[in-house]
Amino acid sequence: INDMEMATDITTDGFMYLWEHREHLDFDVNIKGYIYNYVKTRCISHLRKRKSMLKAQSELYKKEQWRIESSINTLSNEEQIGKLFQSEIIEIYRRELAKMPSLTRNVFLASRLEDMTYHQIAEKFNLTVRQVTSEIQRANFLLRTPLKDYLVNVIIMLLYLQ
């Protein structure tokens, strides 16, 4: 069994069993053969148990290795994660824009999408620059709350888009 300690234990157990059951044994029987068969049977049993345990450990090892590799692949694939967050962020952004009052939405979009200055927006919508500033601040506030969990991703996305 390639384990001297276990072999010694099995052999000792064989002699102990023989000693404990000496009243029930016929000593005319070949004692050496009896001990040999007992030890051989216990060795085979031990090896089968060990084989079974190694198989179970191997399966656990394979599952854990797969789990680790899967986690590494997921964390390494920033592009997919970015796309996932990007689509969620865009959906929230669109939904929140639709909820805004039309003046706030139009002023905000003119500032962000049309790259208009506050003065140009004020002229376009017949507002003061202070009102434009107020409407943009309002839009930012309305967007900030639903997007707070994505703030880091939004910053990275904005930096990436520039």
Structural commentary:
The chain has helices at residues 4-20, 31-76, 78-99, 102-112, 118-125, 129-144, 151-161. The mean pLDDT is 84. The chain is rod-shaped. By secondary structure, it is mainly alpha-helical. Helix 1 packs across helix 2, helix 4 (102-112) packs across helix 6 (129-144) and helix 5 (118-125) packs across helix 6.
Order of helices and strands: HHHHHHH
Determine the mean pLDDT: 84
Query: How would you describe the shape?
Result: rod-shaped
Strand content: under 5%
**Rg, Cα atoms, Å:** 39 Å
Structural class of the secondary elements?
Answer: mainly alpha
* Number of E-type strands: 0
User: In terms of quaternary structure, what is this?
Assistant: single chain
Give unreliable regions as ranges.
none
What gap, in angstroms, lies between the N and C termini?
68 Å
Summarize the amount of helix as a percent range: over 70%
Question: Briefly, what is this?
Answer:
This protein is mainly α. 81% of the residues lie in helices and 0% in strands.
From the structure above, extract its key features:
81% helix, 162 residues, 0% strand, rod-shaped, 7 helices, single chain, mainly alpha
Could you give the topology of this structure?
Elements: H1 4-20, H2 31-76, H3 78-99, H4 102-112, H5 118-125, H6 129-144, H7 151-161
